[in-house]
Amino acid sequence: ALGVRTLWISPVFTMRTEPFHGHGAFHGYWVEDLGSIEPRFGGEDDLIALSEAAESAGIRLVLDMVYNHTSFDAPLLAQQPAWFHSDGSIEDWGDPKQLVRGQVHGLPDLAQERPEVYDFLLRHSLHWGHTLSADGFRIDAVRHMPNDFFHALSADLKAQLGEDFWLLGEDFQGDAQQLSQTFRDGGFDAMFDFPLRYAMVDVICHGAHPGRLAATLSQDSLYDDPAGLVTFLDNHDLPRIASECSGERWRVETALLTLFALRGTPSITYGTEWLLDGPGEPENRADMPWQARGPLADTLTALAAFRAEHTFLATAEVQIRSLEDDLL
Question: pTM of the predicted model, to two decimals?
Fold first, then answer.
């Protein structure tokens, strides 16, 4: 009803559910078994039913894949200890070697460069791609794995699942130059646009000069295809847009209008239509209030419909060039 065309679900594989050192394990990123579905989510049959329902509604399904690490006590750690890096936790987040070989917050770090690890990850990926008729994967923690791993993975997945199979990378940083390099070298179809997210929030919610937004958009020349970026205002790792904008509805609506008016593919987090707030974890991952429609539901529906009708909003650069050709 909102006009959403793609559903990206959080990791659904068997995961640690008990808290670890005071941190709750409800988010799905502490995977224990990539080959089975978390029972409390309903199991494999329910996931297949979800996939079929999405397809019947014309909605693409994107799975969240965690390739960088496992949970702290995953069985694989004891079964295959040589499959993990032994460099310890990341201490210097500016060191590229530590970023790839180090542990993120102490999570066991898989060695994707080992052929047996690559085969393990590819085999499970192909299984779920085929079993669920998935349309693509969102890949977590891209900056902590080598780009040649993704380049090979992209080629192998597309060879088995079709050239249209979609790979969306999460490179959690605001540097457009580094983001564009990962986009290119990793063979991704799309990347989350963190630089633009920070600029939109700074300008619309925190009163920064609009030149901040213009400066970020001027870096589009760094990308081979800026229309391949996935734009967003918040996600499960960041403060909710309602909290960023101090609960001021007009600012949230302005941010959403900006999101839907710019190039790329807009992404919204569940509950945005309800103005869900949350300045940090776990408040930003609050339960979804399913009753009726939220106060911003009509706004989102109208924005999605307008964007679908006026496709130049997603590919403005191409349209402008075409218009220039006509004028010449």
Answer: 0.92
